Amino acid sequence: MRQLLSHCLIGAATLLFAPLAVASDFSLQSVFDSLAKRSPSTTRFVEQKKIAEFEAPIESTGELSYQAPARLEKRTLTPEAESLILDDDMLIVERGEFRREIPVADMPAIGAFVASLRGFVSGNLENVQQAFELTLSGDTKKWTIHGKPVESAVARIVETIEVSGSDGQLSVFAVALTSGDSSILTLIK
Amino acid sequence: LALVIAALLISRAPFLADMSIFLPRNPIDGVSSALNGRSSSLAADEALLFDARYLLASGVSADEFSEQGLRESVTRTISLLRGGVGLFAKDNILRDPTGAAPRVFETVSDKNRPRTENGVWVTRDGQSLLFVVRTAAQGTDLDAQEKILAKLDQAFVELRKELNLSDATITLSGPPLFAVQSRDMIRGDVVRLSTIGVGLIVLFLVFVFRSLPAVLITLVPMFSAVAVGAAAVAAVFGSLHGLTLGFGAALIGETVDYAIYHLSSVRNKDSSTAVWRPVRLGVMTSVIGFAVLLLSGFPGLAQIAVFAISGLVAGYLVAKWILPVLTPTQFAPRSLAGVGKMADRLMQFGSAPRLLIGAVTIGAVIFSLTHQDQLWDSDIAALNPIARSAQQMDQVLRESLGEQGARVMVMVRAGNEAQAFEAAHLVTAAMTNAGPGANASGFSSPTQILPPPSVQRANQAALPDSEQLKQALAVATEGQLLSAKKFQRFSDDVQAARSRKPLSSADFSGTQIGARLSTLLIPGQQEFTVLIPVNDPSTGEIKLNVLRDAMPELTDANVDVLDLKAQTNNLYGGYLREAVTLSALGALAIAFLLAWRLRSMRALAGIALPVTATLSIVIAALVFFGQSLHLLHLIGLLLVAAVGSNYALVVGQYHDDPLPDPATLGALCVANATTLCGYGVLAASSVPLLSALGMTVGLGAPLVLLTSLLWIGRGESRARR
Asked: Which of A37, B155, B194, B631 fits B249 for a cystine, CB–CB 3.0-4.6 Å?
């Protein structure tokens, strides 16, 4: 009986302080939880790449689609069709006739990039944290997450990732490389 | 080198992805390499392959480096750089515009790689992590293998404690484990069953003699025989196989006979040669029977022969010459006449039992003849002491590793590595053509990974010099988004490749590819062998003749297409046939010896007929109970023949001696029972070799005494007594 009473009390207290708790609860976990809730199946994107060898930035457009539990497809449509698929731990590259499957473990840098993109799209924090050490700034309305590679094989090539969004909406996924090159992926609502 | 496959059966496999029990942090002594699919171990391979791409790649040609060819390459490079992957592999893409490296990776990559989760190998069901451990010790050095296996187990137990994973288990499999297990099983069974056998014999002797001195006297020749037999084998062969000891330990049952004859002669106060004459002849027949096995090419049979001959002779000599010295002068052992009376009764039936024995024997022979296909087991697997479940587990793990069965192997031999690779390259081309027709489409040739020097030199010849390449690149990059100077490192790499020494297998040492190559190459002083295993087809059989006909004619190399299973079974079948021939010769030798000593065909027939009848019945009985005969059954039969002729000699006596009195018959029965104890327990062994021996002798020994008694005991004997 006493136990029941104490349960009731705890329950009441939780109800009372619930709004307060949500307001102060802004963490990586809460951001990813909200991303997971609104995980879209298909989003269009514009990608801007800066590569030292080319004078002008390279702009491409396409679609990003996610299928639970573990398949992300980054399909570039212009200027040249190409598909980059991460299915479980297999990376599949398709360019016209050309198709190659490579275990993610064999391509650490691009593997970390695509896997963390999949982690953000699906709202899987653990997945992203396997490859990047994350820091959060901003607030629920407008947040930014910085990531530094965990593994040296990735760090040789990737400098940082910077991802921003608002609420459960992912808006920009940017990656800066040690070579000075970069890619900024903007997702269109 | 020997491989151990370890599967960590862990209910939470993903959680344990970093559980590398073989990490350098605490390396295990005696392990030369441990792989679990971590990509870092591939790094050495990738750097080497990329570096040597122009020598190893297919399709390297002058066309590829022409202005037109390079223009296509530059266009493709730009498109790759702008694509999804290009950003992350920019350096390599710019260094390799012709795409030689991806072509190398494609041919070299293992198509049947294990399933990977979180970067490490797992079994097909994803429930266990997979490791491949290569031991540094020789495969035949079982002591070293045993130590390494124990260390692996221990490392796992420690790690499990450290990570607090009480529900994790480890399964080891592979040839070293099986070899060590077989040895342990045989050793364990021999020790356990011999102890039980000796215990039974002692109990039985105590029951019969009710006298400690009598029992002790009986055991003397037995232990002398084992000691001398073991010493003789060790002296001749350097080592004693567990099986030989198992056989030998059971042989002690027969040497107990000699002691019992001694005791009955003490009791009868008759130490004359008359008592010993049949025994001596029995020893001679046994020695001759086993001497034939010395000629066998099957390792082990000769050991058994040496053990049996030296042990029996030692047992006989000790019983004849040393026991009288050890026996107290006033010693009066208990009479065995009581036991003998029962045997005597069996001899009273007159000639009727002969008809029965004859009928049963004819039935047995007919049964064996009609079951000829089940008579001999020429599959060497029949001798495998490893449990079927362990063999199946091994199969499952191998499949998880992507290892495919390969019954058929093409073997290319030449004077040195370069020649062998040149020859293997031609063979590989021929196999590619003939593959579909021969139902042999999948095979792995080392030349697919490492082309022979001639191919590598042809690739080098196709590469332009720096001036030519510079001009061609200038033209090829005209009007393109990338200028020629961006390809400087490509140009440097091409120049370096032109003067590079062609690669040999030694260049791959220490890499994963090197490990794969080493399983297909057998270097030697005089000869270098390249193996090309052909994957077992998913349906049907490989057409060996088609494959053989397709092989090129080579002057400086030998090419053989081998069916491994058939070869092994042929080899074993050869041993089996040889053993059958030798046993028949042994039987014939025994018959000649008896004929010479007995000087009477009638007396010879009196001994040979019950023994032959028994052997026929034992064979039929074994086949009837689902035992196809193999080598050790044959040894058992030989032993039954030797023991049996011994019995028949004593029962029938020879020359003009009277038929034996009940005391002698009693001694015979007791001796027979001890033989039954010694061998009968072996039938319970889980090692097929030991149980086959135990069953044959356990069945044959009592039966041969019974048939001898029934056959020889005849009506007139009573009249004569």
From this structure: B194
Is the preceding omega at residue A69 within 30 degrees of 0, hence cis? Answer: yes
User: Which residues fall within 8 angstroms of residue B268, CB to CB, at 6 or more apart?
Assistant: B275, B663
List of chain A residues whose C-beta atoms are within 8 Å of the C-beta of residue B75: none
Q: What is the pTM of this model?
A: 0.66
How many beta carbons lie within 10 A of that of residue B154, not counting itself? 11
Find out whether the peptide bond into A79 is cis, omega within 30 degrees of 0: yes
Q: Which residues of B touch A79 (CB under 8 A)?
A: 82
Q: What's the farthest any 2 CA atoms get from each other in chain B?
A: 126
DSSP-assigned states of every residue in B377-437: ---GGGG--S-HHHHHHHHHHHHHTT-----EEEEEEESSHHHHHHHHHHHHHHHHHHHHH
Rounded to whole angstroms, how far apart are CA atoms B284 and B668? 18
Dihedral sign, Cα of residue B47, residue B50, residue B52, residue B56: positive
Within B133-272, residue ranges assigned H as helices are: 142-163, 175-209, 212-237, 242-267
Identity of the residue numbered B106: E
Q: Which of B88, B117, B486 lies nearest to residue A89, judging by beta carbons? A: B117
| B325 band by pLDDT with thresholds 50, 70 and 90 | confident
Tokens (6 digits) for B474: 């200038």
- Give the gap in angstroms from C-alpha B238 to the nearest C-alpha of chain A: 51
Helix (H, G, I), strand (E, B) or coil at B9: strand
Q: Are B47 and B72 in contact (CB under 8 A)?
A: no
Through-space distance between the first and last CA atoms of chain B, rounded to whole angstroms: 72
Measured in whole angstroms, how far is the alpha carbon of residue B95 from the centre of its chain? 51
User: B126 by DSSP, 3-state: which?
Assistant: coil
Residues paired with A43 in a beta bridge: A64
What's the confidence (pLDDT) of residue B604? 84
Q: What are phi and psi of A124, to 5 degrees?
A: -110, 95
Whether residues B87 and A89 touch (CB distance < 8 A) is answered with no
DSSP-derived secondary structure letter, B320: I
- Residue whose tokens read 């064996």: B368
| Residues from chain B contacting residue A181 (CB–CB below 8 Å) | 87, 90
Q: Quick one: pLDDT at residue B233?
A: 85
Chain-centre distance for alpha carbon B325: 47
Query: Mind listing the pLDDT tens digit for each residue in B567-605?
Result: 777 777 887 888 888 888 888 888 888 888 888 887 788
Spell out a b/e string for A1-13, using b for 16 or more CB atoms within 10 Å of the CB, else e. eeeeeeeeeeeee
A134-185: pLDDT as tens digits: 999 999 889 999 999 998 889 999 999 999 998 888 999 999 999 999 999 9
Kindly tell me if the per-residue pLDDT of B390 is higher than 90. Answer: no
**Residue B43: which pLDDT band, with cuts at 50, 70 and 90?**
low
Residue B251 has pLDDT above 80, yes or no: no
Query: B300 is written with which tokens?
Result: 């082990």
Q: Report CA dihedral (B603, B609, B615, B618) to the nearest 10 degrees.
A: -130
The answer to whether A51 and A179 are in contact (CB under 8 A) is: no
The continuous run of DSSP H or E covering B481 comes out as: none
Does residue B39 sit at the A interface (CB-CB below 8 Å)?
A: yes
- If one compares B650 and B613, the residue with the highest pLDDT of the two is B613
Nearest to A35 by CA among A115, A111, A113, A118: A118
Question: Which residue, among B224, B225, B202, has the nearest Cα to B214 in the 3D structure?
Answer: B202
The confidence score (pLDDT) of residue B511 equals: 79
Look at residue A12 and tell me whether its pLDDT is greater than 50: no
What is d(CA B90, CA B194) in angstroms, rounded to the nearest whole number?
Answer: 72
Q: Which of A55, A82, A84, A113 to mutate to test the interface with B (most CBs of B within 10 A)?
A: A82
Rounded Cα distance, A36 and B104, in Å: 41
Q: Return the structure tokens found at A176.
A: 């800066």
Residue A40 has pLDDT above 80, yes or no: no
Closest CB to A181 among B39, B79, B90: B90
